[in-house]
Design goal:
alpha+beta; 6-stranded antiparallel beta sheet; 21 helices; 33% helix
Length: 787
């Protein structure tokens, strides 16, 4: 900074210098307050005459060094002369003159700085301590439409209105206060722009040599191209993570619309061939009109686009973008002024009205193809006023998106097909509802993993058994899908077949384990894969309403829960056998007494809320003691309590409320091992039928009793016992101590015997033998007349 000239010294001027423009001239009164201000002074110091007149001369100089200071606070490189003038009427005055100092040795340095600021290709602006504009370069004037003179001395919000500009002003003030630079990205439309651009702004403080903040500067850069590229990459990245997360056709289509609206398009429509929604492969599309099912549509909040709605099927004319791209197999980028779009609108007035209302200006139609199969079409629309029309780059992005989506849609289609087959298979194999049985009231629920999005291998069954007993089964096959359902069906059939032989629970599971083991060995030799039935679990229970007991055995399956009439509950103490197919340990039968009014709950692991079996079972026990109007309602309540949302495993619950038969429904007699006792047995049976009001079937019953008791006395060992059970049928049972089973045979004409079991089979609904630990029981059932 140049020092002041001494008073009285002349200030030399370059030849030809005009005093009113090149030289800064000011006059001050005796108090040092400015009274006159020249144009040259305004140019040098930056103050206009109205701003500076009346202010002290000291405001023109810095406090620290006393050198000249510009209006924006920066020091000036100028030579200043202060001269006292002659007193007039006792008042003194002063004349202040100043001239910019000669340029430094590096010729042209100062003009280059100014030129660099003014000619910088990107907007630059300087703000004073009060956040008012001091300087703005030509680039800022071009994008804003305001000249430097129009913005000088004004706040940003005094020039343009809007929240984004107000935020920018706050940012400048914060930098002035903190002295720390800041950076911000803004997506806005400046007054001089036709559309919004992406701007990156550096706001930094301007400090004097002492470090004091004297102002702030803003450098802005239009990075719209980089922003668009970054957005495209982000869009593709988000599409990879969000689209195809669910194996659902409509859900995948909806995910595409949610990712692309509004960041890529104002409206996105996904139309599929109807066969795709059913999981089938569609037929090839030929040129001409086409029927498409609207799988998903989404519009930005500023656009109304409602026809057709999701779920509707509509006819697309041959000139429509969807029909054209399906027929040609190529994506299309079209402005609405294209002749083919005009012909489409002429044939489709509904779409034409929507396009006019939404101010549509360009569209992209992309066929959805996967593995050379056309699944449907996607339509991307952009509307006025601020959205730019699609470009070739956008077309490439749309094709890339649809390529990814097509794979997910085809996977969802295949899953829909497989799931439909598995559901049909499972529904065919599972009972539609538990079979009504006089020995127990039952109710069951099966919830596939994922809420019907997957199909697994859980199963349950209620099997009528001789002697008014009932078999209860719950099983769990490893895995999901068609294979698991087929395995489940195979095991359920095997259990029913073994139950018809009337085996005890432990023996039934032993035979079932043998079936799995042998079948697994055959299949693993052929495929080198472990079959799904290896490791399956099963619980088989037999309830006897006459004895009021339940016998059960389990193969790796959770034990059932017994809720007693007083509300207390317990886990039935039954030995845990190994899962099926391992063949390592034997199975054991446990027997538990079930009081009248109790509740027995059989379930699979998927029902439990915790991975810890004890914690999950405790939660189930608490849920089972809830009051409910029926067993069906209790099933729903338990599922809602334990599994409010579908989990990752199937859930199965089978509830049984056993009944106990009283003496009014059962009659039993010990029969001596003496042929003469047969007549006494017939008499006991006839008297009991009379007391039950069943005299009309006494003849057949006496004949059945006679044949069964005679066979037991003649061919078996004692003790012999006769029992009649009145249920929905009349059951006649004869037990003995022999394990040899009788069988039907063809008697020849000369044979005196061999016709007894044949007559029993002809006169009754069904008959059979079940083995017990003490021997066997032969039984026969007779139908009772209705009413």
């Amino acid at each position: 900074m140049k020092s002041h000239e001494s008073p009285g010294q002349r200030l030399p001027l370059p030849p030809g210098t005009a005093l009113d423009t090149a030289v800064a001239v000011a006059v001050a009164d005796a108090d040092g307050r400015i009274t006159h201000w020249s144009e040259g002074a305004r140019r040098l110091w930056g103050h206009t005459a109205p701003e500076i007149v009346g202010r002290p001369l000291a405001d023109l100089f810095t406090e620290a060094e006393g050198g000249p200071r510009h209006r924006d606070g920066r020091p000036l490189n100028a030579r200043v002369l202060l001269v006292p003038l002659a007193e007039k009427e006792g008042e003194a005055s002063f004349l202040l003159t100043a001239l910019p100092a000669p340029a430094p040795d590096a010729a042209g340095q100062e003009p280059l700085k100014e030129w660099a600021f003014d000619q910088h290709p990107f907007p630059l602006s300087v703000y004073g301590p009060d956040a008012r504009t001091l300087h703005a370069n030509d680039a800022l004037a071009r994008v804003t439409g305001f000249t430097a003179e129009q913005t000088r001395g004004r706040l940003i919000t005094e020039v343009v209105q809007g929240d984004l500009y107000q935020d920018t002003e706050h940012l400048i003030r914060r930098v002035l206060e903190t002295g720390k630079p800041d950076f911000v990205e803004r997506f806005l439309r400046l007054p001089g722009e036709s559309r919004a651009h992406a701007w990156a702004m550096d706001v930094y403080p301007l400090k004097d040599p002492s470090g004091r903040v004297r102002g702030a500067a803003v450098s802005a850069y239009d990075y719209s191209e980089q922003y668009d590229s970054r957005e495209r990459l982000a869009l593709l990245g988000e599409a990879r993570t969000r689209i195809g997360s669910s194996l659902d056709v409509a859900g995948t289509a909806r995910e595409l619309t949610e990712v692309t609206v509004p960041r890529f398009a104002d409206v996105v429509c996904v139309d599929l061939l109807d066969a795709v929604l059913q999981g089938d492969l569609p037929l090839p599309v030929t040129p001409g009109p086409v029927l498409l099912h609207r799988a998903a549509v989404k519009a930005a909040h500023t656009v109304s686009w409602q026809h057709p709605a999701p779920g509707e099927t509509t006819r697309h004319p041959a000139e429509s973008p969807a029909a054209r791209c399906l027929a040609t197999g190529r994506a299309e980028l079209r402005p609405v002024t294209a002749p083919d779009i005009r012909r489409w609108f002429a044939e489709d007035p509904v779409h034409a009205a929507q396009a006019q209302e939404g101010r549509l200006h360009s569209l992209i139609a992309v066929p959805i193809r996967s593995r050379d199969t056309v699944l449907g079409a996607a339509l991307f629309l952009r509307c006025a006023p601020f959205r730019e029309p699609f470009t070739e780059d956008d077309l490439a992005i749309a094709e890339d998106l649809i390529t990814r989506v097509a794979i997910s849609l085809d996977n969802a289609r295949r899953f829909t097909r497989e799931r439909g087959v598995a559901l049909a298979l499972q529904r065919a194999l599972l009972p539609p509802s538990p079979t009504p049985h006089p020995a127990a009231e039952t109710a069951a629920r099966y919830l596939p993993a994922g809420g019907d999005t997957q199909v697994g291998g859980d199963w349950y069954d209620v099997i009528p058994l001789p002697g008014a007993r009932v078999g209860l089964v719950v099983g769990d096959v490893v895995g999901h899908g068609i294979a698991a359902s087929a395995t489940m069906g195979r095991l359920r059939t095997a259990v029913r077949t073994l139950a018809d032989i009337d085996l005890p629970p432990d023996e039934l599971l032993t035979h079932l384990d043998d079936i799995v083991t042998h079948a697994a060995a055959e299949r693993s030799d052929a495929t080198d894969e472990i079959p799904g039935d290896v490791g399956a679990t099963c619980l088989y229970a037999v309830y006897d309403p006459v004895a009021g007991t339940c016998s059960l055995a389990r193969a790796g399956h959770p034990a059932p829960v017994l809720v007693r009439p007083d509300g207390t509950s317990e886990v039935v103490d039954a030995p845990a056998g190994p899962p099926l197919g391992l063949g390592s340990l034997p199975f054991e039968t446990a027997e538990v007494t079930v009081p009248e009014g109790s509740l027995l709950a059989l379930f699979t692991n998927g029902l439990l809320v915790s991975d810890d079996l004890d914690e999950g079972t405790d939660a189930l026990r608490r849920a089972l003691i809830q009051r409910s109007s029926s067993l069906d309602a209790l099933c729903d309540s338990v599922l809602h309590t334990l599994n409010p949302e579908p989990g990752g495993d199937d859930s199965t619950l089978l509830l049984a409320r056993p009944r106990v038969f009283g003496e009014d429904r059962v009659a039993a007699w010990d029969v001596p091992v003496d042929p003469a006792a047969v007549a006494e047995a017939r008499r006991h049976a006839a008297q009991q039928l009379a007391s039950w009001g069943l005299e009309h079937i006494a003849f057949v019953t006496e004949l059945v009793v006679s044949e069964l008791v005679t066979n037991a006395i003649r061919h078996a060992a004692g003790p012999v016992r006769l029992r009649l059970i009145r249920d929905e049928t009349l059951v006649c049972e004869v037990s003995d101590g022999s394990s040899t089973s009788p069988h039907l045979r063809r008697a020849r004409l000369q044979d005196e015997g061999g016709r007894g079991l044949f007559m029993v089979a002809e006169l009754t609904q069904r008959w059979g033998t079940r083995h017990t630990r003490a021997g066997k029981t032969i039984w026969a059932e007779q139908a009772l007349p209705e009413g």
